[in-house]
Write a structure and sequence with these properties.
Length: 120
């Protein structure tokens, strides 16, 4: 691209089409592209949750981790992170509840079973 751009020529055609597709998608007028898969969205939510947790915004992190669990019920990372937050907050009942859900929803449930036994 040249350095002396004119008004209306800030984007190449592919980039402009991608921006317009995303804007139309926000309004629900088109289906998302294949590369905008649900797993990519879940990954983004996990990243946001981790960031919120690192910044000390535990309430926001809890809600984001719950969204991940709702969309991907076998996400051991989300269960583990959520249990860790409850443990930091001293909320033993919530920690127990999330561990019980993790046991029924995850393939790595033995780790969660062991952790739950330690709490009781």
């Amino acid at each position: 691209m040249s350095d002396n751009r004119k008004t209306g020529q800030n984007f190449d055609i592919d980039e402009a089409n991608d921006i317009f597709d995303k804007l139309r998608n926000v309004e629900g007028k088109i289906k998302p592209k294949k590369d905008d898969s649900q797993l990519k969205n879940i990954s983004n939510i996990m990243s946001e949750a981790k960031y919120a947790e690192d910044k000390g915004n535990l309430t926001e992190a809890i809600e984001l981790y719950k969204q991940v669990i709702f969309a991907l019920p076998d996400s051991s990372k989300a269960y583990e992170s959520l249990a860790n937050i409850y443990q930091k907050q001293g909320d033993i009942e919530s920690e127990k509840e999330i561990l019980k859900k993790a046991i029924s929803g995850c393939s790595k449930n033995q780790e969660f079973k062991d952790r739950l036994k330690k709490i009781k």
